[in-house]
Amino acid sequence: MAAREWLQSGTKVVLLGVGSFNPPTIMHLRMFELARNHLEKVFGCTVVEGIISPVADNYAKKNLASAIHRVEMARLAASTSDWIHADSWESSQKTWTRTLQVLKYHQDVARERHGAATRLMLVSGGDLVDSFPKILENGENLWHPNDISAIINDYGLIIVTRGISNPRETLGNLAFLKDTAERAQIISDEVCPCDVSSTRVRSAIQDGRSIKYAVLDPIIAYIQQHGLYR
User: Fold this and answer.
1) pTM for this entry
2) For residues 127 and 93, what is the distance between their CA atoms, to the nearest angstrom?
3) Among 45, 51, 118, 204, which is most exposed with the fewest C-beta within 10 angstroms?
4) Long-range contacts: 142-149, Cβ < 8 Å, 24+?
5) Strands in 108-167 per DSSP E
6) How far is CA 64 from CA 21, 31, 105, 114, 229, in A?
7) What class of enzyme is it (predicted)?
């Protein structure tokens, strides 16, 4: 089924962004804005909501600030928008929750809130897609192939290219996605192309370098107030 047949004009869409948001940057907000613009301009959809969903504390990642701080920073970031908000459901879970489970939860909530025909879609940077084939040290897949197929087939994926990521090549090399690529829309930021990342922001803080305009001022103030990433 072609993407234009799958996404009907007027379809209500809720966008979900998952990740550490450690801290949230202007790039995270731009991804939501670009995805909404693409869906409304190209497919005639109506994007009714954007959700920032930080991971829980038990996600194994170095220098991960407490979920309490990351959720609050996500709320500060979303305060500049009238359609994006932060959600603490995923971050409050006692165990790490796979992205497919997070999508299933928010799909149910979205349909209760906006109607049964509402579609939930995942929005991500190209670097997340490049992690699809990654194999962990224990030999297991970071992403289950069935999960990737379900994310793209059952929900849909809007991918924003960034840095040296190559999501088109990554998806093309995954044989089990042969007939589903049209549901993974790849877009780029032609207005404000940048490669701001949370990793670089944390490094700058540790080195005493300025992060102004890479993250919002209220988030800078929050980081300073709580002494994060030092």
Assistant:
1) 0.93
2) 25
3) 204
4) 144/98, 145/174, 145/176, 147/98, 147/99, 147/100, 148/174, 148/176, 148/177, 149/176, 149/177, 149/180
5) 119-125, 157-160
6) 9, 22, 24, 33, 9
7) transferase
Q: Which of 226, 214, 228 is nearest to 64 (CA)?
A: 228
- The residue with tokens 């549901």 is 183
Residue scoring higher pLDDT (171 or 60) = 171
Mean pLDDT within 142-168: 90
State the SS3 of 89-105.
CHHHCCCCCCHHHHHHH
Instruction: Take residue 93 and report the two structure tokens written for it.
Output: 């879970």
Burial class (CB in 10 A: 0-12, 13-18, 19+), 200: middle
d(CA 43, CA 11): 9
**What pLDDT is stored for residue 1 in this prediction?**
46
DSSP 8-state assignment for residue 155:
I
User: Which backbone phi and psi does 43 adopt, to 5 degrees?
Assistant: -110, -10
pLDDT tens for 44-92 read 999 999 999 999 998 877 889 999 999 999 999 999 999 999 999 999 9
Q: Which residues contact 33 (CB under 8 A, 6 or more apart)?
A: none
pLDDT tens digit sequence for 197-208: 999 999 999 999
Q: What is the token pair recorded at 111?
A: 């349909």
